[in-house]
Amino acid sequence: MLDAHTAYADLDPAELTLRDRLAVDRTVLANERTLLAHVRTALGLLGAGGALLYVGDSAVLVGVALVLLLLAPLALGAGVSRFVAVRRRLRPLLGR
User: Fold this and answer.
1) Mean pLDDT of the chain
2) In this predicted structure, what is the pLDDT of residue 81?
3) Three-state secondary-structure class, residue 1
4) Residue 68: CB partners within 8 Å, gap ≥ 6?
5) Region 41-65: what's the mean pLDDT?
6) Which DSSP string corresponds to the chain?
7) Taking phi first (over 0 means left), then psi (-120 to 50 degrees means alpha), and beta for anything else, what does residue 12 get?
8) Taking the model in full, what pTM does it have?
9) Residue ranges per domain, the chain?
10) pLDDT at 2 over 60
């Protein structure tokens, strides 16, 4: 399968049509929305874990809370790493 990065590797950013530039802009915006979704998920996991710790009177609730609190930075890290990877692939097309 052809990777998107290699498909655009031979394109000169100066030769992109308006349609191509708009497609790149939409991809940049979609990448930012995806990062924000990962941040929102991480915050939700932190909030849920904190709430369960606050009301948790059993070992099961505390265990679930700790799992949620451990998943939050993983969700954030996955989002940031994906954002950086996609942005790095788009950089030649952005002319930056």
Assistant:
1) 88
2) 97
3) coil
4) 45, 46, 48, 49, 52
5) 95
6) ---HHHHTTT--GGG--HHHHHHHHHHHHHHHHHHHHHHHHHHHHHHHHHHHHHH--SHHHHHHHHHHHHHHHHHHHHHHHHHHHHHHHHHHHHT-
7) beta
8) 0.78
9) 48-91
10) no
Percent of the chain with pLDDT over 70: 85
CB distance 62 to 53 below 8 Å? yes
Instruction: Return the closest-CA partner of residue 87 out of 52, 35, 9.
Output: 35
Contact assessment for residue 49 and residue 69, using Cβ atoms and an 8 Å cutoff? yes
Taking 90 as the threshold, does the pLDDT of residue 51 lie above it?
yes
Question: What is the largest distance, in Å, between two alpha-carbon atoms of the chain?
Answer: 64
Question: Nearest Cα to 87, choosing from 17, 29, 22?
Answer: 29
Q: Are 76 and 39 in contact (CB under 8 A)?
A: yes
